[in-house]
Amino acid sequence: MPTNRHVEQAQALVYATTLVDAAQAEGGLDAVMADRAQLDQIVSYNRSHVELHDFLTDVAYTGAQRKEVVEKVFSDCRPELVSVLGVMAERGDFDKLPKVRGLFNDLLAEKLNVTVVDVTTRVSLDDHLREVIKNKAAADLGTDILLNETIDENMLGGIIMNANGKRIDASMDTMLANARSVLKDTDGGEC
User: Cβ–Cβ contacts within 10 Å for residue 53, how many?
Assistant: First the structure.
């Protein structure tokens, strides 16, 4: 007999699959990537707006009310994304959103043979470094690679990369924090 966790995983997979398939049918890889970017923003938005999250997961409201709010709040998003989010809200499954996002990324590799590597740096990557990252990631992951580049001017330098739930943090910020920690532990003093 399947456990609740297995049932929730299966439901989240249905939502993620529906979203990938609908986006691909609508506009190919470009549409899928646009949905991915918007899905990331929505997950972040949902985490930081507690009232919205609470409303969308509160079964005291009707499914139609929750769906209507999703359609209004996310009306500027891609239609297939709003449709899937609306169904999730209507069925009381909006709490599965982070799981859907994770599975969406997994399906990119499975269905489209593409892995998105999120790269954060202080300055833009040059073409050579971009190519080195793509080639290394393709060799390691066995898929085509798309880079999703983000500039974070608050970083001191270095690079942070995320792919398939794995993170490589070679930022100066982290290196300095690690050095502080080591120095603090070795001399008992404060940096």
Answer: 16
pLDDT computed for residue 116 by the predictor: 85
* Dist CA 6 CA 113 (whole Å): 25
From CA 44, how far away is CA 1, in angstroms rounded? 34
3-class SS of residue 124: coil
HSE-CB of 23 using CA atoms within 13 angstroms: 27
DSSP 102-161: HHHHHHHHHHH-EEEEEEEESSPPPHHHHHHHHHHHHHHHSSEEEEEEEE-TTS-SEEEE
Q: Which fold is adopted by the domain 114-187? A: Glutaredoxin (3.40.30)
User: Which among 191, 1, 19, 174 is positioned nearest to 111, based on CA atoms?
Assistant: 19
User: What number of helices (H) and strands (E) belong to the chain?
Assistant: 7, 4
Q: Which residues contact 128 (CB under 8 A, 6 or more apart)?
A: none
- pTM here? 0.73
Low-confidence ranges of the chain (pLDDT < 50): none
Tokens coding 71:
């359609």
Residue 170 pairs with which residues in a beta bridge?
159
Q: How far apart are CA 134 and CA 73, in angstroms?
A: 36
Q: How far apart are CA 138 and CA 153, in angstroms?
A: 28
